[in-house]
Design a protein that fits this description.
Layout lengths: L9 E5 L2 E5 L2 H4 L7 H10 L20 H7 L24 H24 L30 H9 L3 H13 L6 H13 L16 H13 L3 H5 L8 H8 L5 H13 L3 H13 L6 H14 L3 H17 L6 H11 L5 H15 L6 H17 L6 H10 L14 H12 L2 H11 L11 H18 L2 H11 L8 H13 L6 H10 L6 H13 L4 H20 L7 H13 L3 H13 L6 H14 L2 H13 L5 H11 L4 H23 L1
Antiparallel strand pairs: 1-2
Helix pairs in contact: 5-6, 5-7, 7-10, 7-11, 11-12, 11-13, 12-13, 13-14, 13-15, 15-16, 15-17, 17-18, 17-19, 18-20, 19-20, 19-21, 21-22, 21-23, 23-25, 25-27, 26-27, 27-28, 27-29, 29-30, 30-31, 30-32, 31-32
Length: 672
Amino acid sequence: MAAPCRHVGHCIRKNGRILFYNLERRLGNRSFSGSSALQQQAAEAPKESTEAIVIPKKKTWSNVAVLEALASTVSRDSTTYPYPFQDDPYLSPRTNAESKLFASAQESGRASAKYFINNNPKFFTKDFAEPHIPCLMPESVSLRLEEVSEAALKERISLRKVTAAVDMYDQLQQAGTAVSMETVYNLLDLICLYGDKDPVQEGEPQPDDTEAREEQRRRMARVSRANDFLKVTWRENNNAVRIFNLLPEKDTRCYSALIRGMVKHGAYAKAFSMYTDLLNNRLTADIHIFNALILAAQDTQDKYAERWELITDLLKQMSRQKLRPNLQTFNNTLRVLRRCGMLAKTQALNVLNEMKALRIAPSAATFEYIVRIFHRSESFSQNNSSSMLQEVMAELEGTSFTCRDPHDVMFFLTAMKICLDNKDLELAYKVHRLMEVGENWRLLGDSFHQGIYYSRFFSLLCMMEHLDVVMKWYKRIVPSLYYPNPQALKDLLQALDTDNRLDLLPAIWKDVKSLGHDNKPDLVGELLSLMARDQHDPEVQASFAVCALDVKAVMDVKSAVEWSASSLSDITMLLLRADRSLQAWEMLQLFKSKNRVPSERLLYAFLAACRRDAAPEKAVELVQLSAAFCLPSTSRLANRALEEFHLSEEQRAVLSELESAGETLTSQDGTN
């Protein structure tokens, strides 16, 4: 398919061309014999083509050509919410939790509607859809053929009725009716796929069996690994094994169904035993058997070397049986190598060499396994653990991926995690640019994984990028692509503090409220602490005071959120600095009602405000409040008030008494 080149690499489809993936530094310079001769022949070939040029009489357009043309004229609106949530503006989610609930409700609604339509097709006999789209039309899931026949068996298999299909097959066997091998293959595939159980239909209501659910929860708590739980799902002598044993002639296709089913449901030892039985019957395995056994190697051998030895033996058997490996073969091998420690780094290169030799184009999952293997091994050796990812990104620049493996969706998540671990901002930009090529964004997966990707990207931006750039990205992806979690907002607050742009804190508080994080005391407390830490310009202090009052109003409404002494002190300090003494005194009274102790710094700020407002009675009240809390600063406050204010004799007597009581308390504390 591909023209030979000096350094042959992985073939990747890119805009109709073939891009050769080259890892020369890692894999060494290797060229295929005869490559130079072929290149010379290609250079000497005549430039003129002998093929006739055929001009089509008309242009054939696809059914969605108009929609594609219209879609190309619009772009994403970064100020609105994700498009799946725009059916009802009132119900559009504004927080991460609401988006999950909204998406779950939508999916549940679709599943319920599909379940009702499929089980009651008689109510949906009219078809007014134009154009007619068969895949969107109601599908009947009810059985129509009741007679004992192979056609009825095929119907039950197509509808994925495992129990009904097995019963029909048994009735056919009892009646002496022959069943074609193709139907038997499909029946075995069905049983092995669902572990001899009927699959739960989409939207089917589940029975409210609290006791059964509690027992399942306790059972899952007893196992330490998911694979241990899967091992019990393959029952001994189930219907698949029974039907297989009753077959007069067993071929590779039958063995393949059972082996894959055993691997899928955790019966790894039985799968290898079944493969041994296949070889004893002088049969050859197919590629699907080897792919399943390679994946099972990580759970049958404990030592890394033994795992790799088993995989190598399986690959050699494939070669002897003249089976050509496919993409899944190599991806499964790399997937197992991830759990082989330092052995994985060396052997992964050999796997890549084999892929090069066989001209097998890697998928995104292949690169994900490679960069993860090298990231772990180089992290242990204290080397630059993003070097392999840098080489991969250099080769994949501008590439549009097509999903060819279920694990393709993990590539961008893993790549961004490596960038975050190594604090490599330049590499993160390359990963993000690749994600935006074509429809590569689909490989981010669902909204949950998309949130993880953008959370890592945004955290890295907050740590390494200039604040102006961070805010541009913030406005670009929030909330249209990403709902920041509290940790991401803390990272943003840290970036504002680093670049000395605390004047933006009131705007960030509005986003904190809209995103539903105003009930997180640690986040709100950090925001208040940053605003109250230093003195700012009067205009900024005025905006901080408004923000502080808004925080107070929110926390008053949310009764579940408890006031902390630091939050009360910060709000009060912000009001004092904005010359809102009356509201500040109201806040000071909350310390009593909330049983919180004001800080010494706050009390001195109040004393300064009293001197500025010429309010000696407030100064006396302040010292009395300090004495009520038995604070050690009471005597010093009383002393300063006596020196700095014009007081009446009665007020001086009160302060002198409080000063003496404070000194006594301080001396007692020192003695203790």
